[in-house]
Design brief:
With 184 residues, this protein is an alpha/beta fold. The chain has six helices and six strands, in the order ααββαβααβββα. Helix content is 35%, strand content 24%.
Length: 184
Amino acid sequence: MKPPSASGVPSRSRGGNLEFLLILLLAFLFCPACGAPVKKDFSLSPDFLPQNVQTLAVINLDPQVRFSHFVEAELLKKGYRVKEGTAVGHFVKNEGFVKEGALDLSALAKIGSHLQVQGVVLCSVLEFNRFRDSYRLSIRCVAPDTGNTFWYAEGAKEGRKGLKSSEFLKEIVVSTLKGLPAAK
């Protein structure tokens, strides 16, 4: 221990500084805004039977923020068959289906028929705040013939500066789709 200073209080050693820095680092890592879990909501229709909805097309409705490839990956992990994203995107774009971030019922029916899918998964950004680095995402699966929702997932999280948005979006998608039953 170091001798007392002129004030009679022992001066800090290097070990004390390291302890202080470690405490500061831990406080930063576990602060509510930085390490908060994803806020999520998942709803499943009683009519949804995974064995009847095996093949899906995933469509990104937001032109600015693309996260549908993360959704595709999670669906594949759960055993669903997913149409290739680029082919789906080209078809939807060439047909001019997406208008103002939504699809009408006739577009859904054409997508279902042409791509031979039992469900269309629509991905959209509900809220984005670049000053707080926060996103709120919507992922919902609808029946292409009726437009009825099979399941709906919503996830939100506030990030921290310096975190790549792709890592952030993936974390939201993975956490949000945890409640989705596996394909049978």
